[in-house]
Amino acid sequence: MKQKPFPSVMAPLTAEHPSSDTRHGITRTDEFAWLRAANWQEVFRDPSLLDPAIRTHLEAENAYQRALMADTEALRGRLFEEMKGRIKEDDSSVPMKDGPYAYGSSYKKGGEQPRFFRTPRDGGAEDIILDGDREAEGKAYFHLGGIDHSSNHRRLIWGYDDKGSEFFTLKTRDLSTGTDLADTIPDTAGSGVWDAGDTGFFYTRLDQNHRPSKVLYHRLGTGTVEDRLIYEETDPGFFMNVGGTRDNRWIMIGINDHETSEYRILPAGRPDAEPKLVAARETGLQYDLEEGGDVFFILTNADGAKDFKIVTAPVDDPRRENWQEFVPHEPGRLILSVIGFKDFVVRLERKDSLPRIVIRDRADGSEHVIAFAEEAYSLGLAGSYEYDTDIVRFSYSSMTTPGQVFDYDMRTRQRILLKTQEVPSGHDPEHYVTRRLMAPSHDGELVPVSLIHHRDTPIDGSAPCLLYGYGAYGIAIPASFNTNCLSLADRGFVYAIAHTRGGKDKGFAWYEDGKRARKTNTFLDFIAAAKHLVVENYTAHDRIVAQGGSAGGMLMGAIANMAPEAFGGIIAEVPFVDVLNTMLDDTLPLTPPEWPEWGNPILSADDYRTIADYSPYDNVAAKSYPPILAVAGLTDPRVTYWEPAKWVARLRKLNSGDQPVLMRINMDAGHGGASGRFSRLEEIAYNYAFALKVTGKAEA
């Protein structure tokens, strides 16, 4: 397949200012370390403070990618219109009942941001309680955080971020007037939870390094300096959040890293109470707390339950010594989540690589499974606002079946279809084929690969392919309906997802076998998936475009170094590619909490060497790389902009081939890219245009 040529444009020349660092007797030199702004914390809050030399370089990168992709402008426009045409512009969620009202969200035609509304419980006129488009007016970036209405339905807590740096401001709204109160709190994690009396709320404060360090209580009508400190986490290696229960009895403070968790609770009606410890943190012990009336349901891996079990504990004394087994551990059945109701307990689990929902009657212990027929699909539990109800809500889709929302009566077992995702421009599932393949990896493990293609696409090795991967933090990538990828499928692409190790697609052991010392399994699994697609005649290596973001961007950097010949192009979105330097910098927001996932190279020479052996930036070498597109956000606190900027500079320096390396940086956004739904489509259209260009399909 002949690639459409890129124009002859001089790439930005990145200045080199070598800086050396010696750890564990090993010295490394970083010639591009200067791209890391010394005042990065201030830049996250005010991007105008960026060093002019760095800004000039980033703007030169944007000018370069614009020049190389100029001939795709019309194609990007067509892709955007196609993807937009599959979105119901005035779409609305199915309102969820809570007391006298039902709450939901919607978009207006042409709107970028969601609106939140409520109606009378059994239907009626909508009352818009928060209009995201109105709040976003005049802002280059705007992202809504959490929304929480009070139990008396009189007030609303809502959060927003207008920089992309994920420092959220919380506001409180009087729902009778639609106006915000004076209670405004900056530098929060983005959400709050009301006390039982609706007189104040609990929230998490971020420190200067963007870490959730304090849970505070704010009483309405008082100054923030009077906010009561409920709990302070002094270990920078732990995340923290605060939430409530649907019966409005408890406030729960969750503290966790990637392998250890801890909960502290206090009565929702006693904001003056001291939080009570449930089970002290113990390295490797994970547990999640869920309400259950006189007991808590606890999802945990305690006592060797690698794929998790459910225990109960009395609410008046939930210490670990009082935990009683409720749903035992079953190897190979990974319990993902649990929701407690007055008469039922619902769990979402994954077995044989597929999700399922199990309903348990609390009275007699009987269980039944909500069954589905397709070969591969995605399930989600939406739960309920209410605790004393027989109705649970869930969502379903597959790669060919648009999303569906159901209410399920747990007592009668009646499944009620509330909504099917509309595709205004039309969608016929019969036009597409979806498959689940199993690709043999380097050590004999079988890697699931989900794929979709148009039924008219020839399976003779001639089709281009976009192969997506992630493989970290135990996150499983669902085989769900994606209207955007249909633009590729309609142009003859095979769209595939490699469910590599590092996710929990095949159980908790699948996750463990793709982290820390075994991280390279993730990369080798992805390469194996690409090879298997070729063996099965779905595509050829020079027709495969690999794509991944964040930790999946690390995957892209690793496979570029390990097997550049296996791919015709690579798209790395907000790529975590400077792994060793980032894990050595304990001032960065996510570094200490990430050590359990990647290792701590500051303290451990073994971890240092393990990371150094695969860190994409450190392993760029003099070899021929395929065309690469890196996408970044200036105010990204998760994967800082200088990681892709440095990586791109080193790739260009050492690349022995003639294919270009592009970097596109959004100067007004962070980790998630553009904040509006249509602005985000423009970014996807750009990425797809790159894939089409490098596979010779740009005229399609």
Task: Give a verbal description of the structure.
The chain is α+β, with helices and mostly antiparallel strands and 700 residues long. The radius of gyration is 25 Å and the shape is globular. The chain starts with 18 loop residues before the first strand and ends in a 6-residue tail after the last helix. The protein contains 13 helices and 37 strands. The mean pLDDT is 95. Among the domains are: 19-84 and 431-694, Alpha/Beta hydrolase fold, catalytic domain (Rossmann fold, 3-Layer(aba) Sandwich), CATH 3.40.50.1820; 308-416, no CATH class. 19% of the residues lie in helices and 34% in strands.
